[in-house]
Amino acid sequence: MSAARLFPGFADGVANASGIQIPYVIAGSGPPLLLLHGHPHTRVIWHKIAPALAQSFTVIASDLRGYGDASKPSGPHYSKREMARDQIALMQELGFERFSLVGHDRGGRVGHRLAMDYPHALEKMLFLDLSPTLAMYEQTSMEFARAYWHWSSLIQPAPLPERLISADPEFYLHEFMGKRSAGMRPFTPEAWAEYLRAMSDPACVHAMCEDYRAAATIDLEHDRADLAAGKKLTCPLRVLWGKNGVIEKCFDPLKNWSQVAENVSGRALECGHYIPEEAPDALLAEIQQFFTKGQHGNP
Question: Most buried of 27, 104, 107, 296 (most Cβ within 10 A)?
Fold first, then answer.
């Protein structure tokens, strides 16, 4: 697991979540804080802020099922319910029954389901650059469809998107990540090498597609069931998004999250989609302020 070298002072390990191997790095001694990445990333996306966070928290940065060095089961095993269960198993294995969470992109969607299914496990959550999956699908516009083309392409039946991406994974990464508002500037050579290493594995590409296929099918069923039952997220939720990104242009994150959560705050930051790598200092300040105010997590 070469990603560990980007987290100096962190220990690395692997949790077993009912046969699914979830790798992680961990450091610090304060309240537990779980960091969950998005697509097409790995736990490496947190490398600019994790060491500083470890001065105040017990920081755990893990790979989601199917991503990075995590297990990559074939087929439809990527509902956010299953992916959330992996992360609960990880935190319980580490001795944390209750914790806080920061989720970027797909990691926020896993966090959303985790908090719905395990409400007593969450102290607070912070989501980065996303509105709820159901809201984004139901409010799709031409502008959103053009910008988030992968929401349509990755859900096509296998093996079409898998073969297209695997034909040139580095080209896909450049097109997907490098064409956003900040270009390639946010990504260090070391982090980029890790993203490319993961994407070069056909099993990882298949898993990513299954993640999106689940988002367009069973995840929507789960979200609609919550709405029908009147269920809402009960822990405090902070939402941050990039002022230069698609979420800012196409959605109203505070309104969208207020429809599924009881206690929501947030604002736009001066950056694009990849907040942990584009605006690490601003994100650090937000995390410190939000999670330390009135926080009484496990030591």
Answer: 107
